[in-house]
Structures are given as C-alpha cells and as structure tokens.
C-alpha cells in the first residue's frame, strides 16, 4: 500500500532506487544538512543497493521513496524507524534531492506520513533529530505540527567543530488540531 498526497506517492524503497539515492547523498549541499546522520565517505549505487536490501529486511522500520504523482519520478526518501509498540512512538527522517527543495514537498510528505501513523497505525508520538542550523528542515517540521523537546548539545562533529542537534516531536492530538 502506498501513501498518497496531493502531489506525491510514497512507495516502498526498491533496489532500482540505488542510483538515485547515491546521487542525493553524495550532493555536498544535502550532506551539509544531515547533521548527526551525515555520511563521511562517498557512496556509490552498489553500496546503496546493499543498504536498501539490509534495511528492507529490518523489523520496526519502513523506508519509502518519495515520488511525484505525475510521472512517478523519485525526489527523496522518508524513513520511519524505532517503531515502539509499547509506547506508540516512532522516529522520522527525510531527505529530498536539492532541486525539489522549497516547493512544499517536504511538508507534504511528512504530513502525509504523520496522517498515516497517527490515524491508521494509532501512533501517539513521532520524534526526530535535526541539526540546529538546518532552518529549512526545522520550519518544515514546525509546519507539520512538531515542536522542540530540547537540545542535544554538541552531539556530533562536523567540519572540524562540535555541533548540536534539536529533538522535535509531535503528538497525535497536536497533529489533528493543527491549524485550528
Ligand atoms: C528538509 C527538507 C525535507 C524540507 O523539505 P522542503 O520541501 O525543502 O520544505 P518545504 O518547502 O515544505 O518547507 C520549507 C520551509 O522552510 C523555509 N525556508 C527555506 N529556507 C529557509 C531559510 N534559510 N530560513 C528560514 N526558512 C527557510 C521555506 O520558506 C518554507 O517555509 P514556508 O512554507 O513557511 O515559506 C528538504 O529541504 C531536504 O531534504 N533538505 C536536505 C536534507 C535535510 O536537511 N533533511 C532533514 C534532516 S533532519
């Protein structure tokens, strides 16, 4: 089953997405914003294919390719991990290719997945971790109803300096009450 929004279809990540994914994560502008999730070395399509095969087999996570409804072209990847049944919580992350930024796709994809998690899966809390200087991502998450839980001070090392991440979360009722 796919998750569909007005302009997007989120479908399962497939081995044939490896080349696209390698292109996205090797883009220095994208890497610069990944904070604690940043990859250090270049990765090629073969390594990405291996990664896709390994994560697809994991329990408690779902990795989806964000595609354009019109034409089906992939524009990014959205992952839901650490699905915790006992506490009804999940961890979300998203990366879009550079040319697709700032057109509302990130907000649309995240809101579509939150709707699915809260209203179909009965999840209570979705959380994420974002580099504190990633203002675009923070704005995108705020538009989806996330607020700041706190800061992980100097939790990762980038370009020769220690950097901090923000933990953000949104609860089911907050998402449903968004914009009221
Ligand atoms: C983060 C990401 C998923 C957001 O998706 P997106 O489609 O670009 O975001 P949207 O267009 O939905 O929303 C971006 C918002 O940030 C705003 N924004 C962009 N640049 C900004 C800046 N420098 N300062 C403040 N706000 C900014 C936009 O104006 C927009 O807000 P608005 O609708 O109120 O005008 C996407 O940019 C991405 O993949 N970036 C690289 C990887 C990354 O950072 N992933 C997140 C890791 S936690």
Task: Please describe the topology of this protein.
Elements: E1 3-4, E2 8-12, H1 18-25, H2 28-31, H3 45-56, E3 62-68, E4 74-84, E5 89-96, H4 105-119, E6 125-131, H5 135-143, E7 147-158, E8 161-171, H6 172-176
Parallel strand pairs: 5-6
Antiparallel strand pairs: 1-2, 2-3, 3-4, 4-5, 6-8, 7-8
Helix pairs in contact: 1-3
Kindly describe this structure:
The relative contact order is 0.16. Helix 1 packs across helix 3. The protein has 180 residues and is an alpha+beta fold. It has one domain: Aminopeptidase (3-Layer(aba) Sandwich). Strands 1-2-3-4-5-6-8-7 form an 8-stranded mixed sheet, with helices on both faces. It has 6 helices and 8 strands, in the order E-E-H-H-H-E-E-E-H-E-H-E-E-H. The radius of gyration is 16 Å and the shape is globular. Helix 4 links the parallel strand 5 and strand 6. 29% of the residues lie in helices and 35% in strands. The mean pLDDT is 95. The structure holds coenzyme A. The site of coenzyme A has 22 residues, from strand 5, helix 4 and helix 5.
Structural descriptors:
180 residues; alpha+beta; Aminopeptidase; 8-stranded mixed sheet; 6 helices; 29% helix; globular; binds coenzyme A
- Order of secondary-structure elements: EEHHHEEEHEHEEH
How many individual helices? 6
The helix/strand class is: alpha+beta
Main pleated sheet: 8 strands, mixed
Kindly estimate the percentage of residues that lie in beta strands according to DSSP. Answer: 35-45%
Spell out which ligands are present: coenzyme A
Q: At the fourth CATH level, what is the homologous superfamily?
A: Gcn5-related N-acetyltransferase (GNAT)
Task: Using the 3D structure, state the CATH architecture.
Answer: 3-Layer(aba) Sandwich
Remind me, CATH topology?
Aminopeptidase
Helix content: 25-40%
- Kindly report the average pLDDT value: 95
- What shape does the CA trace take? globular
């Amino acid at each position: 089953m796919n998750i569909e929004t007005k302009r997007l279809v989120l479908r399962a990540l497939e081995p044939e997405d490896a080349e696209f994914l390698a292109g996205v994560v090797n883009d220095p502008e994208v890497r610069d914003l990944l904070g604690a999730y940043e990859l250090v070395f270049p990765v090629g399509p073969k390594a990405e294919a291996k990664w896709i095969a390994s994560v697809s087999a994991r329990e408690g996570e779902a990795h989806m390719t964000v595609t354009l409804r019109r034409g089906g072209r992939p524009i990014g990847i959205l992952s839901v991990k650490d699905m915790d049944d006992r506490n009804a919580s999940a961890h979300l992350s998203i990366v879009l290719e550079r040319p697709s930024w700032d057109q509302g796709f990130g907000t649309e994809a995240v809101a579509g997945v939150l709707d699915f998690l809260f209203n179909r899966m009965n999840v209570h809390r979705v959380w994420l971790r974002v580099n504190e200087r990633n203002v675009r991502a923070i704005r995108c998450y705020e538009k989806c109803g996330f607020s700041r839980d706190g800061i992980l001070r100097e939790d990762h090392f980038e370009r020769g300096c220690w950097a901090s991440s923000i933990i953000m979360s949104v609860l089911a009722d907050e998402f449903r009450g968004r914009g009221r």
